[in-house]
């Protein structure tokens, strides 16, 4: 049974180093990732409905930057931004990186994180709920999604991506892959 | 007669097909869900099932030896009853094991159009005594009633002595203070109510904002909570809001606390209950998996004569606190 108090924070030293890292490579990878996600999970959009046009600020509060997500069907974007450059957004979802990744992988319950104040939401609540429910239904595994970025070499990349994600995740106590779920 | 060794049926929530599979895999005997429209009382954005998703989920349940129930438990709007009729037809078509209904007209439609479709009476119907329940059984052939969360264990036992159909009671999840099926509180602030539109405090009318180290929740523009940095946050429902009334300031209607009657499983079995229901179709598959696994162990422990241990799920609950609700009426 998970406990909200157990959610680890990103190491402060790492966060300090990232403060000066260029965000362009992260934005390029993010753009590629979100396009792959949309190709592989088309039903995300039937659940998002009109909320797919909204701008979400995904804000890992233990990192020195955030992500602007616009899951638009035709032109999806996921851009790393400094908070002061985040611009206008419709909804903000903030919390430790581990909590946000855990939500994607179905490790944590979003309502419980909200009750315990580990997760903060602001702005358009309807958009936040739609995004949370759509992602929860897709049973997304980021390691598999990253492997899919390699196109025809996906099957080669899949096993190393999962092993690396699993090992790093265990070390930091963060869910970087969807383990222990095996639905027939 | 002792109920020791009785196998209680665990009825579990699913808001998405993924949560449905998670519930079955975690040990649910039965899963209940609803269509993605105003015909069910959890009509939230991104939630619920298309007809195709329901068909796939029902097939998954049956393959795993479990049952699937479909909640069509809001009250049809005048002049728009066709949507509710269609959903009853859809549920019958995909092979649902029962539909959970509240409206008398819809019960009449379902019993006549689909005489072989099992009918359960929703908690929204607020049938809380033997006469009312027996009426639904006689008139429409209802086979099970979901009892309102306003009865004590002793009252549940009294009801069961006087009726001939099964009873299902809530064992875990969110609590409402109002008599079931009669709440219009949300509509005063938003124009929408759970009984008519399927959403209490619809998300489109909810706003959260951090103000001076406090989390402020607003519903339809009205501030209903201000909680400090270390306090547990509640749902943005009026019944659990903090208000000033005279010199009193606090939760005027109800504390933001959740039901956990796990410790009362033996008493509920002794009272003649057939099934235990978990609330939470609006929650994630993580919640579903954790709660179902916990309560499946509890009902198996009870059936095997082992002690039932409860209270392990507090972190998942609203307000991070739990209560046995009206089953033990000490709060009145």
UniProtKB/TrEMBL annotation, chain B:
GO biological-process terms attached to the record: ubiquinone biosynthetic process
This protein's record includes keyword Iron-sulfur: yes
Residues that, per the record, bind [4Fe-4S] cluster: 176, 183, 200, 239
Cofactor(s) listed: [4Fe-4S] cluster
InterPro entries documented for this protein: Peptidase_U32 (IPR001539), RNA/ubiquinone_mod_enzymes (IPR051454), UbiU (IPR043692)
Pathway(s) per entry: Cofactor biosynthesis; ubiquinone biosynthesis
Keyword Aminoacyl-tRNA synthetase annotated: no
Single GO molecular function: 4 iron, 4 sulfur cluster binding
Keywords, in A-Z order: 4Fe-4S, Iron, Iron-sulfur, Metal-binding, Ubiquinone biosynthesis
HAMAP family linked to this entry: UbiU
Family indicated by similarity: Belongs to the peptidase U32 family. UbiU subfamily.
Subunit structure and binding partners: Forms a heterodimer with UbiV.
Xref: PANTHER family: PEPTIDASE U32 FAMILY, UBIQUINONE BIOSYNTHESIS PROTEIN UBIU
Function: Required for O(2)-independent ubiquinone (coenzyme Q) biosynthesis. Together with UbiV, is essential for the C6-hydroxylation reaction in the oxygen-independent ubiquinone biosynthesis pathway.
The protein's name: Ubiquinone biosynthesis protein UbiU
Organism: Rhodoblastus acidophilus (Rhodopseudomonas acidophila)
Gene of this entry: ubiU
